[in-house]
Amino acid sequence: MATTIASTHATVLPQPKKVATAVAYTNADRASRSGIWVGIFAITMSFAAFTSALFVRQGTNDWTHLVLPSLLYVNTLVLLASSATFELSRRSLTGGALIEYAGARKALGWLAVTLVLGLAFCVGQYMVWQQLRAAGIYLATNPNSSFFYVLTVIHALHVLAGIIALVYLMGRLVASHSTFRRNYFENTAIYWHFMGVLWVYLFLLCRTKL
Amino acid sequence: MAESSVQPAHVHAPPEGFIRKHVFSLDHKVIGKQYYALAIVAVFTGMFLSWLMRIHLVWPTAKIPGLELLSKAGAPGGVMTPEYYLSLLTMHGTLMVFFVLTNAPFAAFGNYFLPIQIGAEDMAFPRFNMMSFWTTFVAWVVLMLAFVIPDGPPISGWTMYAPLSAVGKDAGPGMQWGASCWAVSIAFFCAASLLGALNFIATTLDLRAKGMTLMRMPLCTWAWFITSCISLLAFAVLLPACILLILDRHAGTSFFIPAGLVISDRVQPHSGGSPLLWQHLFWFFGHPEVYIAILPSMGIVSHILVNSMRKPLLSAKVVIYSMMSIGFLSYMVWGHHMFLSGMNPMSALAFSFPTLTITIPATILTLVWVGSLYGANIQINSASLFAIGFISMFVSGGVSGFFLAQPSIDIYLHATYFVVGHFHMVMGVASLFGVFAGTYFWYPKMTGRYLSEGLGKLHFWITFIGTYCIFMPFHYLGLIGNVRRYQSFVDDFMAPYLPLHKFITIAALITGGAQLIFLFNLIYSHFKGKVAPDNPWNATTLEWSIPSPPPWNNFGDRHPIVYHDPYQYGVKGSKGDFVMQDSPEQVIASGD
Question: What angle do CA B191, A54, B168 make, to 5 degrees?
């Protein structure tokens, strides 16, 4: 039965024409794009849960507002700048679903800058935690500091995941640029931009007293 | 095949070696079976625990042989302590809700059949899929660790209500490390479920075969898809809750623990947290979880019923939209678990309304099933019996939901056996009936052999009657005022009802025993069962168009093309009264 149906299909299905220049996106490409958006949605939902917990906790009478280290402004700028360089890198790509060699070489330079900025952000966050600790503000000191540490640490872990993806991306670009799917690049970029947006949101959330 | 040149190469190479084939497999079918096996282990553990609890409940001084080996402190001389009863209760609930009701109907069958039913070669992200299962496995191991660590499993119940769950050893036995095992285990479980849900969604959206439009997907695929959307939202909230709970327990924070709390004569060194916050976060997950458990079974049951009726459902679209609205409404009702938490009566009303609204799509679903059954020449076999049994359980268990959804009545019924009877029937047994139906239906596809029909029917009748014997009296006991989670009722106002409790215990032992028939059937039929053809039920969906058991890449080098809606039964085709989804022949006449 399987064979009869398959042979019927072979006649029914029009033969696809091979496109010489740009390679088309496949279902797998589309699935991984959906995957990254669904993942972003899940992360958003988790932080929404943290946010609602924070609102509830702010309503209690032991809430003391934290004065955040000004280094955080620098970190914010660094992370936003890394998004910009990632975008510059993405724009220098050429080719369709597969990345072409010439574009990949240009893209690599900006990616390296992105990586450095991303690492700088993580180091900056670490320094912020150190500053707070030096001021005697620890995780359990007061509810605001608890939320600050929880939110920033979990965000930093997500950024670290992005950095790992970025390193993998650069490795693949160097090793196999001609067979490398553009989709992986763009998905990483979407995730990275989302980390920037998420950070701005978290920073405002920690900074403002509602 | 000619068309294979346009598609990418296989998503993964054919597996080689024992480890790649059976342990760290990327194949969705193997992963599905692994989930199923884990669910079987968990369900029998959970059932065994319920036996122990039922025995203790009616014979509190009974010596249970061997129980001392499980826990010296929990059962000195083989007699269970009241605290150990609570430990077993917690483990029973956690195992059943997470590792059985979430895993079996959704992760196990969904993994196995969703890609095949939409004509895909595998899940979108096979590696993530493998990681989901093994993370779930780690979660199970961590949970079971609670049995072997010195202070035993936690005594807080599966809802882990703060502040007692957050303060550590002052809250009683099992609350020091046992509760930590629970929290870490559930955090792992959440992560695994999120990965799994992501995979299901991407697969359904993007890997459908040519011609497989969304509306042509089989109803169980729809159910798994909707369920994955629900789990994505629900577990994404439980995970942060678990993280905050772990921090409260081990890092000295005060998210859930209020100031000046005295437990076991000790002032807890915490300030200002909100125990209600845990309840909100937990039930924001917890209520959708109910639908995570039952929606897949609704889909499976629809899928099987329509096959055994040999005619289409009254409306498959209505089933899809009803399941969607149930999924959507499940997010607006979590507060109905908290009517007695001191919430504003107006908020109670606001939660009561959508809860009662859920009965509308649920009733529509039931009407579609029952209305379709009307006049159908149904083929009675184990699968269809369990499918019909599902409707029975769903209605019987669901009706008591009307009562509980109303704050004024819930004040009286809250935390009684009425609630326990309600959720065991509608969430527990009903979704397990879906799993049983699915097992009898798909076993020939998964193994190439039938399950024994005789044993299957015996299993059905004992389980069906036994379930009613166990859980119907629960409602009655609840109305009398029998509070849940008490370890015995021998010396209070409930003493006159002890005979009823004894009846329930005996019914539970017999019904549980019948599950051993099922287990035997699963193992025996694997080796000695009657050999089944590729499409034993004359079914129409894509999983029946491939060999049994399916090859590693499902369709071989073929890329199926879908021409029809999923359930072309009662039509004239070349092979009888049905036309398969991927059959290019035209449908001549529809229905009766």
Answer: 65
Q: Which ipTM was obtained for this model?
A: 0.92
Report CB contact under 8 Å: B232, A30. Answer: no
Expressed as residue numbers, the domain containing A151 is: 29-57+100-210
Specify the pTM: 0.93
Nearest in space to B513 (alpha carbons), one of B459, B433, B453, B432: B459
Peptide bond into B14 cis (omega under 30): no
- B495: DSSP letter: G
**CB of A178 less than 8 A from some CB of B:** no
Q: Which of residues 49-108 of A touch B (CB under 8 A)?
A: 49-50, 52-53, 56-57, 60-63
List the helix and strand counts (H, then E) for chain A: 6, 0
In degrees to the nearest 10, what's the CA dihedral of A122, A124, A127, A133?
-80
> Which whole number is the average pLDDT over B491-510?
93
Residue among B436, B441, B507, B514 at smallest CA distance from B474: B507
Determine the Cα–Cα distance for residues B187 and B240; give it in Å rounded to an integer: 8
pLDDT in tens, B159-218: 999 999 999 989 999 999 999 999 999 999 999 999 999 999 999 999 999 999 999 999
**Going by C-beta distance under 8 Å and a sequence separation of 6 or more, which residues neighbour residue A135?**
none
The answer to whether residue A74 sits within a structural domain is no
Q: How far apart are CA B328 and CA B229, in angstroms?
A: 10
Domain assignment present for residue A176? The answer is yes
**Beta bridge partner(s), residue B449:** B531
Chain B residues touching A49 at Cβ < 8 A:
236-237, 240-241, 281, 284
Tokens representing B104 are 């079996």
- Taking a C-beta distance cutoff of 8 angstroms, is the pair B313, B301 a contact? no
Cβ distance B433 to B386 under 8 Å? yes
Other Cβ atoms less than 10 A from the Cβ of A168: the count is 12
Of A49, A63, A140, the CB nearest to B236: A49
Interhelix angle A182-207/A27-58, nearest 10 degrees: 10
What gap in Å lies between CA A160 and CA A164, rounded to an integer? 6
Reported as a single tens digit per residue, the pLDDT across B212-228 is 999 999 999 999 999 99
CB pairs below 8 Å between A and B: how many?
A: 146
How many alpha carbons fall within 13 Å on the CB side of residue B306? 26
Nearest one of A85, A64, A78 to A140, comparing CA atoms: A64
CATH entry, B18-256+269-273, from 1.20.210.10, 3.20.20.30, 3.40.50.150, 3.40.50.300: 1.20.210.10
Which residues belong to CATH 1.20.210.10 in chain B? 18-256+269-273
Phi and psi based region of residue B264 (left: phi greater than 0; alpha: psi -120 to 50; beta: remaining) = left
Cα distances from B221 to residues A114, B218, B302, in angstroms, run 41, 5, 11
Of B239, B281, B558, the CB nearest to A2: B558
CATH code of the domain containing A156: 1.20.120.80
On whether the CB atoms of residues A147 and A54 are closer than 8 A, the answer is: yes
Three-class SS of B33-82: HHHHHHHHHHHHHHHHHHHHHHHHHHCCCCCCCCHHHHCCCCCHHHCCCH
Q: Is B572 left (phi over 0), alpha (psi -120 to 50) or beta?
A: beta
CB count within 10 Å of CB B483 equals 14
